[in-house]
Amino acid sequence: MFFLITLVLSSQSIALCEAHIKEKVQEWIDKNKNIKIQFDYSPEKPIIDTFTELQFSVQDLETKQHLKDFDARVVVTKDQRLFKFENITVTNGDFSIKYIFPDDGTHKVLLRVNTNHSIVLASFSVFVPHQSPPSLLNPFPNNQGQPYTVGQWISITIIIVIPISVLFSVILIIKKKV
Fold first, then answer.
1. How does DSSP classify residue 15?
2. Residue 117 confidence class, pLDDT cut points 50, 70, 90
3. Where are the chain's structural domains?
4. DSSP annotation string for 79-113
5. Rounded distance, CA 59 to CA 133, Å?
6. Secondary structure (DSSP) of 45-92
7. Half-sphere exposure of residue 8, counting CA atoms within 13 Å on the CB side?
C-alpha cells in the first residue's frame, strides 16, 4: 500500500530546482566523462513517512555549466527494499524528486544520467534518524529539536479541543435527559 501511494504521489513530484544546491552537499565526480553531480536533501533530518525532497544538480566539470536535455533515473534502496523513479526528463541540469522514507537508517540514492554522449552512475547516502513513537508523556514528539510551528500548534490544539468538546456535549445531553 505504501509503495502504491508513493508511486502515485511521486509521478507528480518531479520538478525543476530553480536554485543551486547549497549546504551539506554530496558530490560525485566522473573525470573520465567530465561530469560533476551534486546531491542534497531537505529537510536536513528526514522524518519517516513524510516527504523528503532529493535535489540533484548535474554540471559539466570543465565549463561549470549545467548539462542540458538529458534523462535521469533515481533508485532509493535500503536492505532488500528499492524504489525507482524512471524516465525523468531534465532540461536545465537541476531537478528534484520527493520520496517518503519508510524507516530509519542509511538509505542509498543511486542516480543514472543518460546524455547523448555517455551514461554516468552516481551513489549518495541519506541518513534517516530513529524517531521515537508518541508516548503518553509526549504525544506530540518534535524530532527536529526545533520549536513547534504555528501550524503544528493549531493541529495539537484541535486534536485536544475537539474530543474534550464532544465529551462535554455528551455529558450535557445526558444531564438534560435526566
1. B
2. confident
3. 2-128
4. TTEEEEEEEEEESSSEEEEEEE--SSEEEEEEEEE
5. 41
6. S--TTSEEEEEEEEEETTT-PBP-SEEEEEEEEETTEEEEEEEEEESS
7. 4
Report residue 16 CA to chain centroid gap: 15
Residue 61 grid coordinates: 566539470
The H or E element spanning position 132 is none
- Spell out the long-range contacts of 40-46 with Cβ–Cβ below 8 A and sequence spacing 24 or more: 41/126, 43/144, 45/128, 45/129, 45/143, 45/144, 46/101, 46/126, 46/128, 46/129
**CA distances for 5 relative to 9, 10, 99, 138, 148, angstroms:** 6, 8, 11, 29, 27
Q: For 2-40, how does the pLDDT look when each residue is reduced to its tens digit (9 = 90+)?
A: 443 343 334 333 333 444 545 589 999 999 999 999 999
> Side chain identity at 67, as an amino acid letter?
L
Query: Span 2-128: which CATH code?
Result: 2.60.40.1930
> Does residue 58 have a pLDDT over 90?
yes
Which residue has better confidence, 96 or 153? 96
